Request: fold
Amino acid sequence: MEKKKKKHFELDPNSIKSMTAWYFVVFSLAIISIFWFLQDFFLNQYYETFRAQEALRNAKSIEIQYRENYGGFSKYANTTAISSGIYIRVESFNSTDVYDGTSAINSDLELDDGLKAAKDALVDSSENSIHAEVKGNKRNESYLIYASYLSDKDAPAILYVVAPLYPVQSTLTIMRTLLLYVSAIVMLLAFFLAIFLAKRLSAPIESITKSADEMSKGNYSIKFNGGYCTETKNLAKVLNQASYEMEQADFYQREIIANVSHDLKTPLTMIRSYAEMINDISGDNPVKRKEHLNVIISETERLNQLVVDMMDASKIQSNSIELHKEYFNLVDVVKAAYESFAILKEQEGYDITFAPCKKAIVYGDKARISQVVHNFLTNAVKYSGDQKYVHLEMKRNTKKVTVQISDHGVGIAKDELNHVWDRYYRTSANHQRSIEGSGIGLSICKGILSLHNANYGVDSEEGKGSTFWFELPVEKQPK
Ligand code: ADP
Reply:
């Protein structure tokens, strides 16, 4: 029995998952540290300033209340003392009122001494109020002592406000506990977010890798799934396109091997059969022997042409084709091609016609342009069907000259029109009819015409025929 492979998880520190997790952990730790740092180092300082300002504000409003709201002053002072946690004392010539909202201010501060010192300072000062920060005796905490005249200097009523400037212990404890909770929540959130994010990021990449692995085994029908992120979606799109192209290339490669072996096999069989015939039968009969040798020669020519085509195609693909450009009359070139094909007209019943235009000088590689015309013509003849009708037409204006080669043959299906220029592509109709061909010719034409920056194309309707065309700019014959 086959043992089931144990799936074990190895933690890869370089994987997206681990990296995101680490970044999140470090990030949340940084945030938490900043929180703690702020509270430990800055809180006391800020708290002191804040408390001091608040105490001074309170003192001012107490002064106003004392003057304007005599009946309700006691209540106001009491509430302020309690709500702000301060010590308020109002000394007038006949009474001393105390409102204490602090907890045990006396236990730390020598209050009477402090207030006396404040009174002395106020008397010495030319101002209406003074304030100072003092340190407690036992706990070394800071206090703000404020003193001001509430009425005339001559019959003075004096207001004292004492405010502890340190945070109350319970406030600190609450804040620390709160921070502890916040830290824990942040860490937990970061942890789950890291897992979620890592999954979301790595899942499409893992899926793409898996698909690519499948594709490398030759399964081109596999679809790449890019998940939700734009980048991975684009990657998947490009890979889907690549997989399509590879499938096509693979298909064409198989096709060419099949086609070329077929193309090579037919002439080779012919050569062999005719050589055997000469050997066995016609060796002594000069007329028959010549006839058979001619077949061998023409088949060898076919083989040669096929090899030349394949070499041209590979040169075009590797961009190593060289053009020998010159000025020439395109009409002469097309006419020469037409004439070489006209012989077929007589021998095999083809109806080949030619409508030239007036002289059209172009600049290009004459031999290569002639090769294109020959190729279009060969195809027109080859695919002209029973009608055996082929028409060459040239049109020119001041700017350009167009060569059109039409047939009334099998035509090309719409969805195959763009592919006929691809290397090794042969339309499905021709497969069925088993017309011989390698699918190289038009790709060579495309290469040559592209190198000339020429416009070219094909118009075709299935069953009605095709027109292959190209155009070149008309030049002035240099003197
Ligand atoms: P082939 O050697 O197969 O003719 P080409 O590259 O010259 O190779 O042509 C590619 C394919 O384009 C052909 O196999 C054929 O299916 C199609 N084709 C080319 N010319 C014509 C035409 N005049 N009419 C119909 N189909 C054509």
